Hints:
The chain is mostly helical. It folds into three domains: 1-80; 81-178, D-Maltodextrin-Binding Protein, domain 2 (3-Layer(aba) Sandwich), CATH 3.40.190; 226-274. It is 55% helix and 6% strand. The termini are far apart.
Amino acid sequence: MTDARQDPAWAPATAASLARLEALEARVRELEAERRRVFEDAQREADAVFAQYQLSQLLASGDALEPLADAVLAEIGRATGAGAAALWLAPPGGGPLELAATVGSAFTDLPDAPLAITGPGEESGTYDFFVEKVIAPIAETQGLPEDEWQTRPDYTASPNDNVIVEGIEGSDTSLGWVGFAFYQEEQGRMKAIEVDGGDGCVAPTPETIADGTYPISRPLFIYVDVAEAQENPAVAAFVDYYLSDEGIANVTDVGYVAEPAADLEAARSAWSSAVGG
């Protein structure tokens, strides 16, 4: 009897089996993603039909105009997801969008409580990124003109991340955004919000930030004047240190996320080519 483990044909057969298994697993993932997409599309259609039915019942009830209008607005808000938009976009005392001033209302199952929002000011690149990545898509969906694609005006803005952290920690019904490094230092007192970028909710971690699966993350760059670096040894020495193993280690030491190894190697290669290394 031949021992299959010693048979030369065993390895190719095993490799082929593994390949088929991987292909099967990939197909299962594709089918699961398609099932989820179909379910979500059907859910949205069902919500729309239900909203139309609810509105028809409201209109047929013959109630007084003001409560009827409030009920219609509440139903539209529920069906369109206006609650998420109102958290960031609505002005204080915004009439039918008064949800903007509270956590929870008819649109959500969250408690009716004052909402304290703290975040970076307009001088911050973090502010610009947040508006572009989070607020602009919501505002566009709500049909707002581009000059209104900005945060609601009544939040507490600060250029100091520690002040933002204090604002978030200072209330049980707070909301804010701050750099991941500052969250890591205070994660026992703050709760990170998972974000759905299209494939389900993802929590912010060094791994999900590095591979881009956490959608509200951005890279940070430095821009070097090559001519200046060639003339000034201090500039070149700084960039050399910045890209060294020691320099990159400092990134994680202070709570930031190091770029993936392939990207780091590409940056090192580009720098070496630029200065004739």
